[in-house]
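Q: Joint fold for the lines below.
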Amino acid sequence: MKLLDMHCDTILECLIKNCGIRENNLHIDLNKLKKAGALGQFFAIWIPSGEAAEHYGVTGTPKELFYRMYDLYEAELKKNSDMILPALSYQDILDNEKAGKLSSILTIEDSTLLDGDLKVIDEVYDKGVRLMTLIWNYENTLAYPNDPDNEIHMKGLKPFGIEAVEYMNKKGIIVDVSHLNEGGFYDVAKHSKKPFVASHSCARALSNESRNLTDDQLKTLGEKGGVVGVNFYSEFLVEKSMHTKTEDIVRHIDYMVDKAGIESVGLGTDFDGIDCTLEIENYGMMDKLISELQKKYSDDQLEKICSGNTLRIIKECL
Ligand SMILES: [Zn+2]
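A: Joint structure:
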């Protein structure tokens, strides 16, 4: 089964732990991706800010942080071009597959580096970025983050956020609403002319976290032709849990398929960005999930969840 995971934070982990992407002790490396049958991987450049930046001991402006991680990413891809190549389009993924290579799709998590300037979208597009997560857990020039406080959670996108979504549509960058608050989500649904994704989120009905999507959000995402990637973080799957069981991932997939539709659910592991123990200890063990899903989904349905739906989004947006 071909897999395509919409979110991991492996690049930042490589920077902090001073290791490469070919073989490491992290959740994701190229050997593990190959072993599991991945078609490719979305690699996020996550730009930590606020307390997160302190926690990881990284300093610098959002743009400086972006380029520090971008340089590592670019060097790693060059070094490992026998195994993985960048994918800037749908066709690139097909070509890379034909050549027996993985595809890498570069993303940015937290569009804080835009700082109110649309030209930065041109700049990162030229660097190969093809998906942008509008926000992380702190307010930026586009939007407000998910928040347990309902007043903040229901605030809409800022005017610059609407402009940025429309420009990403035009440019061919996938808009990602994971981490965004609920008010912002509905503004994206209203203003985006292309399907959008929640690259790494789960169902709020099963774990009452403001990071997760309500039934109505899932339904709206499905109606817009979008895709939600199931996140493997224990607390997003089961409230207060510190261990991720495969059955809980399956439960969220089932639920989200029921609410959003079989065309609108995919993978968004959040590997190397989650602090919990997992039954699927790393990407190389993804067959555990596949064999559980095989018990209830047809090959055709399973292919959609594992890669087909995300490939459709890439085809429609890039
Ligand atoms: Zn995230």
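Q: Anything notable?
A: Residues 109, 178-179, 200, 273 surround zinc ion (CB under 6 Å). The chain has one domain: 3-317.
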